[in-house]
Amino acid sequence: MKKIEHQSLSDRAYQALKDGLQEGVFLPMQPMVIRNLAAEYGISATPIREALQRLVAERLLIVLPNRSIVVPRMTRELFLDLMPIRVSLEGLAARLATSNFSPKDLEKLEKLVQRVANAMTHYDAKTYLLLNREFHFAIYEKAGNPELLQLINDLWLKVGPVFTGLFDDAYFREHANDEHQNILRAIKAGDAEAAQHYMQQDIDIAAKALLPLMPEDDVT
Amino acid sequence: MKKIEHQSLSDRAYQALKDGLQEGVFLPMQPMVIRNLAAEYGISATPIREALQRLVAERLLIVLPNRSIVVPRMTRELFLDLMPIRVSLEGLAARLATSNFSPKDLEKLEKLVQRVANAMTHYDAKTYLLLNREFHFAIYEKAGNPELLQLINDLWLKVGPVFTGLFDDAYFREHANDEHQNILRAIKAGDAEAAQHYMQQDIDIAAKALLPLMPEDDVT
DNA sequence: ATGCGGTATATCATATATCAAATAGCGTCA
DNA sequence: TGACGCTATTTGATATATGATATACCGCAT
């Protein structure tokens, strides 16, 4: 008998909004009006308001001076602030994870590297992005540090929407999977420092590919 | 004419609760009952609930399976999870900060190191803790990365309450300010790598002093 | 003494009404 | 035409009532 899982409306609204964020449904700087969202989701304003406030507390949304809540526009400055943090935390995660892989885990990781390569060969940006994320989190989860995983997940939610620009960069397209292979090799060799190094390289290269796409500071 | 700053009840409740957290007013694992807090603060349940949910979203509070909200008890495991993150982020902040100090900033930092030493000489734990925090954040703020500063601030909110145990450790009492002096020297020399290294040492030494005080995993 | 069922109570979650604040729109005046 | 004042409207914030869920307590049967 399957346990009945109760989920509050607030939690469900939160998840729906978060999915919408990930899918880029909400335009940056466009007010997310509580009453409209409530009507759209067929529930009252309260759980919507709670879900929005929660996303604000998680810094995925911001409150403007007129109190409306919006998806922040990614700016060059914010992007530059986030990158060293990602390098630092994701490098740490790769280092912590390195000694925690079973042969089965390694096999899975190998398959992911291959599938990433395949997606790139076919210029399949959408699949690439999904698999890239899967590859990275297959490693970060092995770090065995829930707090760290959560922080990294939050970071990805913030910068995720701009990853779609990665395929615009020819250098990136050609070298993107090199670092994945280097990371994999280091992990297989149990070389935590190397894994950290190549993970940081991967993030650095991606950041350099994306930076030209970042708008100058907000001109709202 | 001073601008009239409007602050919502929800924001004010949030700040009051956060202050309470910092001062250790709320016992770990003791339910924070919305109605009681609302009565105590003289406002309705809604802004209290919002403030609590916000603190949950920031992971400073947790929701138990029975839906009550509590301050999580710091466990050995959580502590061990948080420390490498602190080492990583606060080391990064020290490194980023190193080239951003004016002579006046350095003077201020020097005074703080002296005052920390003074508090230790007088076995003044309370003053020590305040000044220690002030010293650290004087540096982190110089990193010029608001996202990073926020993350570090959050981490300090989580582990802050257990810092009171630092004075219990004789080794720590004797060596605590050594690293501060090393950090200061590195910053004055503009040596970002050294500043990072000594900052990480400082956090590491403090963690080792605190670890014996950490209870085994939750036995609620 | 223990386990079970039912009821009462406590407390969270949600809906709704109302209040508070911001903005839009309109008319008037210089 | 632009600035100002006023009103209406929109939208967030809060209060309150009610629904939903969890827990405590009691009585009864074994």
Can you walk through the features of this model?
The structure is a homodimer of 220-residue chains. With 220 residues, chain A is an all-alpha fold. Chain A has two domains: 9-70, Winged helix-like DNA-binding domain superfamily/Winged helix DNA-binding domain (Arc Repressor Mutant, subunit A, Orthogonal Bundle); 76-213, GntR ligand-binding domain-like (Four Helix Bundle (Hemerythrin (Met), subunit A)), CATH 1.20.120. Chain A is 65% helix and 2% strand. Chain A has helices at residues 9-22, 34-41, 45-57, 76-97, 103-121, 125-140, 146-159, 170-188, 192-210; strands spanning 62-63, 69-70. Chain A has a two-stranded antiparallel ribbon with strand order 1-2. In chain A, a hairpin with a 5-residue loop joins strand 1 and strand 2. In chain A, helix 1 packs across helix 3, helix 4 (76-97) packs antiparallel against helix 7 and helix 8 (170-188) runs antiparallel to helix 9 (192-210). The longest helix of chain A is centred in the middle third of the chain and has 22 residues, at 76-97. The first copy, chain A, is globular. Chain A starts with 8 loop residues before the first helix and ends in a 10-residue tail after the last helix. The mean pLDDT of chain A is 90. The A-B interface holds A 50, 53-59, 78, 81-82, 84-85, 88-89, 91-92, 96, 145-148, 150-151 and B 50, 53-59, 78, 81-82, 84-85, 88-89, 91-92, 96, 145-148, 150-151. The structure holds a DNA duplex (30 and 30 nucleotides).
